[in-house]
Amino acid sequence: MSTNAILSRERPSQGLGFHSKPSKAKTTEKFVFWVFRLGTYFILACASVIFLTIFFKGSQTVFQSEFPFINTEFLLEAPQTLHVFEHEGQSYEMSDTNFRIFEEEQGVDIKTSTYAYSGGGIWPCIVGTVLLVLGAMGIALTLGVLSAIFLSEYSKPGKTLNAIRLSILNLAGVPSIVFGIFGVGFFVLAAPQFAFSQDAAGSFTELGNTGFYFKFGWGVSLLAGCFTLAFMVLPVIISASEESLRAIPQGLREASLALGASKWTAIRTNVLPYAMPGILTSSIIGVARVAGETAPIMFTAAYAMRDQLPWEGLEKWSDFFFQGVMALPYHIYVVSAKIPQNEYTERMQYGTAFVFLVIVAGIALASILLRIRMRKKYRW
Amino acid sequence: MTQKGETNRYDLHSRRRRFLGLDKDQALKGLFGGNALVSIIVLALITFFLFKEGVGFFGQYRQDIELHRRSGIEYVEIMKEQSAAFTDLNRYLNSIRGEHATLLQEQGMAFKDARAELKVYEEFIYAFEDLGYPVSEYALEMAEVAIGARDMYEESANLREHRENLLALGRDEEAADVEVLDVDLSLFVGMLKEGEADFLALNDALAAGLLSHIEKLPVIGIDSLDAKMQRFAELSRMFVGELEGYESRLAEWDPDLPVNMVSAFGSFLFGKNWVTNSSIQDWYGILPLFTGSLLVATIAMFFAIPLGVGAAIYVNQVAKPAEQNFIKPYIEFISAIPSVVIGFFGIAVFGQFVREVSGWTILSGFDIFPISERLTAFTAGCLLALMAIPTIFTLAEDAINNVPKSFKEASLAMGATRLQTTLRIIVPTSLSGIISAVLLGFGRVVGETMVVLLCAGNRIEIPNFTNGIGTFFEPVHTMTGIIAQELGEVVNGSIHYRALFMVGMVLFLISLLINYLAQKIVLKYQISRG
């Protein structure tokens, strides 16, 4: 299409000879808008570079060209030392367990070069992350949503309520490491732990002769991590849920009350169903944040290495909560900053980052899509 | 009672079950209220706990500094400072020789000949080095005395505490076995002070030796190097002049000068050193970490403000709906990338990339390039910019979106172009929202941990701001980074542990301040829609 055609469609006056060339203002406008456009697409490009690098390099670890196309060893085994060696003219790379079996089969001692953390997989990390997220969200959603209902439906408006609201909003902006240091001081070191029997290390003190034992501090444990993460997202969940509750028009409540419903019935039938999408979205964002944070769990829940899965080797049921776990974000930190770098660790790094990114990005994407759908569905 | 029965006849919910004297509605209200109470208590607890652990720091730190003074370590450090100044001089002299050597090498001179050429003034350098020995040896000796005194004092304090604990438990016999030495620090300080005359004599010898030594300044025969030699002589004379200052500081030093809370407070807030696990003296000055955080945040905001606000303007004012529906979720999606993944990307890819780019010939005009470090404030700043952009973008876009449509229509109707409308009407109207968006983005950057821990280089030092642009390419350490790095290795309740809590508290207060400002700005300059 020629320029003339465009111009004439926009400006009927074209034929009369007005505006034969674009004015200075128009040229500047075009130029400035192009600068904005390029800036915007530059952001998208930067993010895409990160995604593509990690997807491209990570998929080489996670996927493989042979059946079953997914590297099950990487996804379903614990991190191990990698042995790289040559045997009878062939070069092998094997994780520690496989190597021992191989050595036994061959019946010889083989000299190898070993690389820490480079073999095996990340199964315990995935399990640990899932447990932390489940625990933290369980605590945060119960406390958060119920508190939000109270604050928006039952409490009397006034100065106190405003002050509470303001402080919750402020706490939502506090850096995650501050919650981490709080978690260490409070849950790991100071919170009381009770038991009905002495443990093997004898670290508990008996309360008189009651057969009731206690000690200070939960130690680096799943429970401490869950609580720290839960309190980190609690302000976010309270303020987001309360916002979506308050967005429901007052008329809906009043109509229901006018028909003789009790307060709770009005809330249950006329407020919660419409606020649910908002609450759901905020909680999914909470899940993404909980899953993605490293700083709060570094010192409260995460172990760099643990041989057993959380449900293995438990003496009693409560040990499940008082054990440290491996977690994906902390594992990425460990393999990328704490151990010597080489080509073998690189595979582990990218593979872990890939799996982690897929999990977190999947959750985030779900929340974004949900929000877009819900926005279209409910409007008043 | 009868009255109640009567009302029940008309009550539609007469079969309402009661639990603990509450009906269902009241019970539910109690449940919700209880939860709200728990949440609020917990959140208040966090604040309280941070303060409780943090505030104890100052008392301990004051004692620590007082011991530092009373054991005479402070006195010895003045001597050490002087010998460090001498070492600097020596280093300068050696750098002249180094430069000469590279120059000769570039001229294609054989190694042997070059050595011969350098040998001419080697004597001069060695003799200069020897001049400093007596003083530095003396300072080392004295340091050993002072540190020994401090260690003995601390040990005896520990033992005394142990004995008191035993006594409190009623184990008197064991307590009697604990021998506690009474360490009188003033004895040791007296020893140090007695030696002052010796030190002054050494200093006089040093000054005389130096002055006579630079009379024999060698001439190299290359103009630039000779100029440096002259400069060296000048610096040496200055050093001799400064000796008096050190001496008077030694003379004025008083071990019994009290250390008050204010100086502990000042030493934390304005202290230039963060030194831990040192054999001489630990220092907890937050300034290097604070400036590091600030430097990284400045770099991040330098990129994030124009990009984030620009993108917000573009998406809201210029982009077509299809573009909007793609860009907005995408940028929101960026905020979901976990920080540790971005940090990992920085370590694995971006740091290397920055260093390679700095080696490009186009940039060779700047003398700070190419840079030698892979992980610097710049690397971390760029990555943090990407993390701040979604925050700034989303909030700024909201603010722009809130500008009443009539404003825009009125402006367009007056004949303004879209650009004029955007820049002169829309942006100024939504400026308060944009500023608070920028502030919150800044808050996010300052509080970010993993990216700076992985990519900022972790060197605890105040950035050298005289380097110009080069400052941005120095490795730094940050407040968030130091907590993440050192919290794993501290002893519960120790001064180091409390110092980290104090750093956490400073971060907490900064984030509160930023949030407060952001809210104030939004409220104060809200658009009136009357």
From TrEMBL, chain A:
Output one GO MF annotation.
Answer: phosphate transmembrane transporter activity
| Family matches, as SUPFAM superfamilies | MetI-like (SSF161098)
**Where is the segment annotated Disordered?**
1-22
Identify the keywords attached in UniProt to this record, alphabetized.
Cell membrane, Membrane, Transmembrane, Transmembrane helix, Transport
Its subcellular locations are: Cell membrane
Set out the biological process GO terms recorded for this chain's protein. Answer: phosphate ion transmembrane transport
**Topology of the protein relative to the lipid bilayer:** Multi-pass membrane protein
Specify one Pfam family.
BPD_transp_1
- PROSITE patterns the record matches: ABC_TM1
In this entry, which stretches build a coiled coil?
none
Per the record, the major location class is: membrane
Q: Which residues cross the membrane?
A: 31-56, 121-151, 171-196, 216-238, 351-370
Family according to the record? Belongs to the binding-protein-dependent transport system permease family. CysTW subfamily.
Kindly give the NCBIfam families that the UniProt entry links to this protein. Answer: 3a0107s02c
- PANTHER family assigned: PHOSPHATE TRANSPORT SYSTEM PERMEASE PROTEIN PSTA-RELATED
Q: What is this protein called?
A: Phosphate transport system permease protein PstA
This chain's source organism reads: Pelagicoccus mobilis
Gene from which this protein is expressed: pstA
From TrEMBL, chain B:
Cite the Pfam families for this sequence.
BPD_transp_1
Q: Which GO terms describe its molecular function?
A: phosphate transmembrane transporter activity
Q: Which residues cross the membrane?
A: 30-51, 295-315, 336-355, 375-400, 421-442, 495-518
SUPFAM superfamilies in alphabetical order: MetI-like
Tell me which GO cellular component terms the UniProt record holds.
plasma membrane
Which GO BP terms, alphabetically?
phosphate ion transport
How does the record say this protein sits in the membrane? Multi-pass membrane protein
Localization of this protein: Cell membrane
Entry keywords, A to Z:
Cell membrane, Membrane, Phosphate transport, Transmembrane, Transmembrane helix, Transport
Where's it mainly located?
Answer: membrane
Describe the location of the ABC transmembrane type-1 domain by residue ranges. 290-518
Q: Which family does it belong to?
A: Belongs to the binding-protein-dependent transport system permease family. CysTW subfamily.
Q: Which PANTHER family match?
A: PHOSPHATE TRANSPORT SYSTEM PERMEASE PROTEIN PST, PHOSPHATE TRANSPORT SYSTEM PERMEASE PROTEIN PSTC
Q: Describe the task this protein carries out.
A: Part of the binding-protein-dependent transport system for phosphate; probably responsible for the translocation of the substrate across the membrane.
Which protein is depicted? Phosphate transport system permease protein
Q: Source gene?
A: pstC
